[in-house]
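Project standup — Tuesday

K.O.: blocked on the structure for the chain from last sprint. Re-posting the sequence here as requested.
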Amino acid sequence: MNVSEEDLKEIGQICIPGMRLSLADKEHIAGPGTYELKGYIYSTLTGVLKIEDDEKNKVKVISVESPRTPSILPKAGDIVTAKVTVVNSRMVQCIILCVGPSVLVRPYRGILKKEDIKSTDKDRIDPYKCFRPGDVILARVLPMTEIHWYHISTAENELGVVIATAEGSPQGVGMVPISWSEMQCPKTLVKEPRKVARVIPDNIMNQNLFPAKVKKEVVEIKDD
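H.V.: unblocked you, prediction finished:
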């Protein structure tokens, strides 16, 4: 059942995950706590429905707020910081920890599909040569297609692994990028393949997203 604009303003409709809220058109866009799918806007949360006017873009923003969830939620186009939990031949699973510079109160589950890892050679990509469990990555949020997972992409030069530890390296010793596709442990000199991000952002260095103390610096790699 669609919720009319009048209902939104008058009663603060109570929503549940998966509830269809509105058409997604030139006048209505999905905001925090919602997602767009096949021309409609749906709720991702149990909470109260809100509608706000975006005067700049001349649209109404449909959102859902819940007292049990943080006000900041990942949305399509956001750059997020995530920690890799599972890697297989088809996808990479992770938990999203930050949206931009803001640390989330609770983590959200993310999926990075094989075809969204790089912008080229998509059919030949081996996810295990790009990421390993425990890696901290930067990724961009894609349009939402299901309730319980955020789909993300690293198919940009600036996105990918920013913090990683080589297998067998001493605890607390992070690897250093030596190319766009490889990192090396400065202690053991072990090299491992990774899809390396261009820079390390300040927000990762300022938060306890990685168990080790990592020196705050920006790593720039020159083209070979």
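K.O.: great, moving the ticket to review. The mean pLDDT is 79. The CA atoms of residues 85 and 133 lie 5 Å apart.
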